[in-house]
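ok, trying the design again with the full structure, not the truncated one.
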């Protein structure tokens, strides 16, 4: 790794001399992956004689020997004094959580479930999962809900993450693999347009690829209202008003058409529906787009030219473009632009969404989403129900239908007719859900809240029963990273006494609910069943085995059975050119020959700009946007407990432009109150010209008084049901 390639994040990426292949790992050492984000950086975990666990970077294709600070401090949580080592039970409503035996805790859960379901029906018990769970856990959780509980009410935090891009990908391509090509293609592109992503902080080792790309003469266009560390490295930084990316993307497409940059051959050969889109974007002339977005006309032309002139170009979206009440349409607008330029399915080019959670991709494929069955099958598809019911040994008619989406599920908790019991596994919605004060009230209204977590998260603290879960270094399984590459998570050591793996917990709960078989606790057994259940589905894992993953540095889905050999080829189009260009690792590149719609073509979708659900007014004159900082992960339940990270980023803050601060009399470091129509949050004012003077930015990693989600509203995207995390109206008050 040369010195300049770590320039952006010298302080944030820790590059080590890469270690050799995992076959050379010493006893007490395992080759695994980081527990946090979707980059799933390769790491070696070693335990010394005193039981201390150390982390070493491993040379894996996605991280090339780099880890961010979260990765290299990840083992600290294994021995954290905050770790739960015994179940906790609240024996009286309003009482305290007290230590209990597993038997007492599980009996309480089972009795609670039975009481509620007897009285209020099966759907009165709900499940809330997480995109950080292994494929095995996500699969078993979905089966547990549909078979052991028989409830339709299951959804997960991925709904808050990439659901808009997934919905847009499905409608355009007929398939949602967030990144339909390997990450290395991004680094090799002549031009990259990145809308609403800040990988310098959210995926630092990947941001090094972007540096390499520019060193090699490539161009990077970043679309972000803030001048982030990523934007600071861009050839061109477009700073739209939050919530206006759709208009910007339509405007870029307008320029592509008007300046002859359209790839007419590709559009004719590989797509449908362009004429309608061409007519629609005619209304997005550059001056109008400048009025809506604030992006100067000249910059719009420059961005379109950089994309249009590139031999290989990649368009990427992150949460900044997607987490809106028009997030699906916004992702569609960027996909339209990519299609007009002939990028998707062209080797070296493409459109991708940067999936965020550790198993954000796999987590959405195996059935913890309200409308899905394993293999990315639709729960309302009779053939899918028959297939999965056969694997599960149940009657297809006994499988519930689609349930409510994440926020709608949380919103209904404890209401008449809504769920009275909830099992949470792998999420901390008290901090991370929108309209969080309301969600907290709904959670408190439940008759039975059960949370399985390694730590007493803010959500676990409200529970009636808390079940201590094993951590990543204490379990085996698979994760599917942002590229659609299925990886092995390997166990270094058993969980501490008193702690169980989530699979063991689900297995035992199912047994006590009357299902002595069908819920194995062993990950390899679960994976074997998952392969069968996914077989023939869009996300086909049937040809993936733990061994094959080991041999091939991961396997990209789809990977149908019959190709389970090192010589096995791509699945997308057997015998085709695509097969030859893909290789032994499953299907690194989908869409090379055909898209997944029945006619093999991609679809343009007409999308129109519309205002955010909430616009500034005289009482709430500022825009609020929310997101992440490098040191903390998500709700912060984990990273706030890692000493080095807590020290580096100890408290909530709000970024305020110095001009705005001057106007309001706010000085640097002062505690201020941010007020929205839902409530308020207190945070330290951080003065920086990186934010627009009309916008403030808050990270969402803290609960309590500094909780950003106390401010966020309940507007949802009509297609994906994604909340509007990225734009709202607020005012600032001095305290
Ligand atoms: N350090 C860290 N890394 C993480 C995570 C974490 O919590 N912490 N979480 C992981 C997960 S689950 C995810 S989903 C990813 C998310 O990764 P990113 O998408 O990179 O993260 P965000 O900070 O949510 O949003 C990115 C940018 O969107 C910008 N933005 C805000 N509003 C708008 C808008 O209207 N338009 C545009 N174009 N941009 C806007 C923000 O200024 C921000 O810089 O990160 C993953 N990696
Ligand atoms: N305002 C605002 N809000 C947002 C966002 C935003 O940009 N702005 N981003 C949204 C996005 S993209 C996401 S992905 C969500 C994420 O939000 P959350 O779902 O709250 O994410 P985490 O903090 O990762 O929660 C994981 C919880 O599960 C526990 N856990 C970790 N691993 C395991 C495991 O293997 N088993 C079990 N049982 N528990 C485990 C952790 O200790 C933690 O308590 O937040 C969303 N909320
Ligand atoms: S970039 Fe993501 S996967 Fe890599 S070390 Fe950091 S948190 Fe872990
Ligand atoms: Mo996410």
């Amino acid at each position: 790794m040369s010195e300049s390639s770590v320039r952006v994040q010298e302080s944030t990426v820790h590059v080590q001399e890469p270690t050799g292949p995992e076959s050379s790992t010493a006893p007490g050492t395992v080759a695994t992956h980081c527990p946090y984000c979707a980059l799933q950086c390769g790491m070696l975990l070693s335990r010394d004689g005193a039981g201390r666990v150390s982390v070493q970077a491993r040379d894996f294709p996605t991280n090339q020997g780099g880890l961010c600070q979260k990765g290299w401090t990840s083992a600290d949580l294994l021995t954290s004094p905050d770790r739960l080592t015994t179940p906790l039970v609240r024996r009286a409503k309003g009482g305290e959580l007290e230590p209990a035996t597993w038997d007492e805790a599980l009996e309480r859960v089972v009795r609670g479930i039975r009481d509620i379901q007897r009285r209020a029906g099966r759907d009165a018990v709900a499940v809330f999962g997480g995109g950080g769970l292994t494929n095995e856990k996500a699969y078993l959780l979905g089966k547990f809900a549909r078979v052991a509980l028989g409830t339709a009410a299951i959804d997960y935090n991925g709904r808050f993450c990439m659901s808009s891009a997934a919905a847009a990908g499905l409608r355009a391509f007929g398939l949602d693999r967030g990144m339909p090509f390997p990450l290395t293609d991004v680094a090799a592109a002549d031009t990259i347009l990145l809308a609403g992503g800040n990988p310098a902080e959210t995926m630092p080792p990947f941001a090094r690829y972007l540096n390499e790309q520019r060193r090699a003469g490539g161009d990077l266009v970043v679309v972000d209202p803030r001048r982030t560390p990523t934007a600071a490295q861009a050839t061109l930084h477009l700073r739209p008003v939050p919530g206006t990316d759709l208009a910007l993307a339509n405007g870029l497409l307008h320029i592509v058409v008007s300046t002859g940059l359209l790839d007419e051959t590709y559009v004719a050969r590989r797509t449908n529906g362009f004429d309608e889109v061409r007519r629609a974007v005619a209304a997005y002339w550059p001056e109008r787009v400048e009025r809506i977005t604030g992006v100067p006309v000249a910059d719009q032309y420059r961005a379109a030219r950089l994309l249009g002139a590139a031999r290989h170009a990649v368009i990427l979206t992150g949460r900044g473009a997607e987490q809106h009440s028009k997030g699906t349409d916004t992702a569609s607008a960027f996909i339209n632009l990519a299609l007009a330029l002939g990028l998707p399915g062209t080797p070296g080019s493409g459109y991708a969404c940067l999936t965020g959670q550790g198993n954000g991709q796999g987590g959405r494929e195996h059935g913890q989403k309200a409308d899905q069955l394993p293999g990315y099958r639709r729960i309302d598809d009779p053939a899918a129900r028959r297939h999965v019911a056969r694997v599960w040994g149940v009657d297809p008619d006994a499988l519930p239908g689609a349930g409510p989406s994440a926020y709608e599920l949380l919103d209904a908790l404890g209401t008449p007719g809504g769920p009275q019991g909830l099992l949470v596994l792998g999420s901390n919605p008290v901090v991370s859900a929108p309209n969080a004060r309301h969600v907290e009230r709904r959670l408190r209204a439940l008759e039975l809240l059960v949370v399985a977590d390694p730590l007493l998260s803010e959500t676990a603290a409200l529970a009636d029963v808390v079940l201590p879960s094993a951590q990543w270094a204490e379990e085996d399984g698979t994760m599917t990273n942002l590229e659609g590459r299925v990886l092995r998570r390997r166990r270094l050591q058993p969980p501490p006494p008193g702690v169980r793996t989530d699979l063991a917990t689900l297995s035992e709960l199912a047994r006590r609910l009357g299902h002595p078989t069908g819920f194995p606790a062993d990950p390899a057994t679960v994976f074997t069943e998952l392969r069968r259940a996914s077989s023939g589905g869009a996300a086909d894992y049937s040809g993936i085995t733990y061994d094959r993953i080991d041999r091939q540095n991961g396997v990209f889905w789809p990977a149908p059975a019959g190709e389970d050999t090192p010589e096995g080829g791509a699945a997308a189009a057997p015998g085709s050119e695509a097969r030859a260009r893909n290789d032994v690792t499953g299907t690194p590149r989908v869409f090379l020959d055909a898209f997944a719609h029945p006619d093999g073509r991609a679809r343009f979708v007409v999308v129109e700009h519309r205002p955010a659900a909430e616009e500034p007014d005289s009482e709430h004159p500022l825009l609020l946007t929310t997101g992440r900082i490098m040191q903390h992960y998500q709700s912060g339940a984990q990273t706030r407990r890692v000493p080095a990270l807590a020290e580096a980023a100890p408290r909530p803050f709000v970024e305020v432009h110095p001009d705005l601060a001057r106007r309001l009399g706010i000085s640097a470091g002062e505690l201020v109150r941010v007020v929205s129509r839902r409530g308020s949050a207190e945070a330290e004012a951080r003065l920086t010209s990186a934010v627009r003077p009309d916008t403030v930015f808050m990270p969402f990693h803290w609960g309590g008084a500094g909780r950003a989600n106390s401010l966020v509203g309940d507007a949802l995207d009509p297609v994906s049901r994604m909340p509007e995390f990225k734009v709202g109206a607020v005012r600032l008050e001095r305290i």
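Keeping the full-length input from now on. The mean pLDDT is 93.
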